[in-house]
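Researcher: Quick test of sequence recovery. Tokens follow.
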């Protein structure tokens, strides 16, 4: 098959959560384990770091990969979803997997599966591809981001060096549970016996869940925000300290947005644990890795500047906690008038999200080109009840073009609400 035909097989024919939602979700690891056996257990051939959480797990994964890469390790990185190119999900030292490698893997799968008759989802097969690719390329370590939840996620067959859970908030409640405690229980499913675990943020309702799970599995537990602290200097650099000493000074973070400060502490806590497990991670590599995350790993869509005069920023925050972070950041910006290009998917708590948005902005409502996207007319109708006013556009690009046309020199355009809206603009 050509690369285009291979993509059509992956994106068009296999069940895909990003496109069709709950219908593509598997509540067991049967296919994942069968695929792992089919390819001779590739994940056993390299070290891993496993990263879960409601928000921030992508940023933390990229930060960790960037630091490890700066330290001289051969680093695999598996993340989801992708923004523009499927191959963004699977990277080796920041470089996307080649089209040829994608095609070759799918051909191998189809030939090996003649008798097995495994019927994987898009995500299950993508994870298998990543593990196989990292094994063939003989990576030293791979940073593996959980797709959804943790306990039943297709990535959850690895035994990592460190397990990481960034934070917990209400998202995918129809699959993971409708309380923070239930969602924490699903995320805690990545904790393994004897393997240290980092929790990024201490939260009253979830602390006991992680403590009990760690105790049951004799897994050393660290809360990043209780053990590491960040102080911001006037020049934008920061100092990171532990309870008893300064660890890093004049650190510069390449990722913008104040909400990244929490992700930095989660990353540092993980790095300190990796050192105890034999990784050579000097201060220079840590500083360099944090400064050059986007350059080294290709991360996009996190408070990303797309233009100036008017300033144009996009961000993939898409649930209640993510939107709160984004709105907090937005409140610190200076502009004459705010324009928001906005769309969401129909399985989010849209009412809560809309209640967080500023009434003073002009809105450009649009529907991303996926089945899960919420109808823009329906979104506008709901938004009006929250005193959010604007027009509906036929596409995300049309909405974005209208915002740019209407915005003045000193205005501000924000693009967000959904990863898929951001993807179409980028």
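Model:
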């Amino acid at each position: 098959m050509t690369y285009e035909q291979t993509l059509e097989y992956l994106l068009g024919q296999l069940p895909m959560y990003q496109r069709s939602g709950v219908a593509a979700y598997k509540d067991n690891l049967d296919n994942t384990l069968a695929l792992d056996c089919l390819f001779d257990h590739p994940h056993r051939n390299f070290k891993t770091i496993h990263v879960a959480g409601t928000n921030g797990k992508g940023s933390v994964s990229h930060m960790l990969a960037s630091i490890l890469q700066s330290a001289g390790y051969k680093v695999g990185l598996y993340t989801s979803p992708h923004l523009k190119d499927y191959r963004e999900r699977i990277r080796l030292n920041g470089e996307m997997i080649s089209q040829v490698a994608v095609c070759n893997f799918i051909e191998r799968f189809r030939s090996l599966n003649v008798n097995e008759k495994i019927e994987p989802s898009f995500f299950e097969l993508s994870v298998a591809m990543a593990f196989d690719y990292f094994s063939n390329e003989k990576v030293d370590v791979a940073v593996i981001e959980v797709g959804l939840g943790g306990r039943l996620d297709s990535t959850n067959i690895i035994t990592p060096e460190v397990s990481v859970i960034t934070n917990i908030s209400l998202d995918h409640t129809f699959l993971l549970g409708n309380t923070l405690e239930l969602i924490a229980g699903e995320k805690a499913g990545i904790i393994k016996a004897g393997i240290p675990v980092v929790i990024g943020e201490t939260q009253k309702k979830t602390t006991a869940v992680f403590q009990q799970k760690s105790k049951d599995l004799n897994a050393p537990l660290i809360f990043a925000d209780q053990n590491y602290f960040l102080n911001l200097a006037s020049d934008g650099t920061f100092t990171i300290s532990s309870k008893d000493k300064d660890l890093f000074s004049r650190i510069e973070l390449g990722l913008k947005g104040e909400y990244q400060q929490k992700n930095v502490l989660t990353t540092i806590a993980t790095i300190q644990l990796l050192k105890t497990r034999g990784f050579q991670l000097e201060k220079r590599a840590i500083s360099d890795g944090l400064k050059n995350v986007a350059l080294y790993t290709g991360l996009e869509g996190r408070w990303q500047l797309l233009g100036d005069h008017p300033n144009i920023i996009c961000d993939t925050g898409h649930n209640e906690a993510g939107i709160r972070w984004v709105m907090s950041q937005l409140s610190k910006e200076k502009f004459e008038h705010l324009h928001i290009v906005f769309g969401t998917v129909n399985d989010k708590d849209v009412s809560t999200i809309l209640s967080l948005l500023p009434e003073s902005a002009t809105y450009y409502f649009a529907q991303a080109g996926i089945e899960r996207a919420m109808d823009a007319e329906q979104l506008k109708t709901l938004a009006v009840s929250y005193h959010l006013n604007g027009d509906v556009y036929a596409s995300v690009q049309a909405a974005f073009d209208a915002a740019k046309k209407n915005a003045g020199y000193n205005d501000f355009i924000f693009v967000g609400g959904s990863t898929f809206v951001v993807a179409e603009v980028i």
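Residues 17-21 have pLDDT under 50 and may be disordered.
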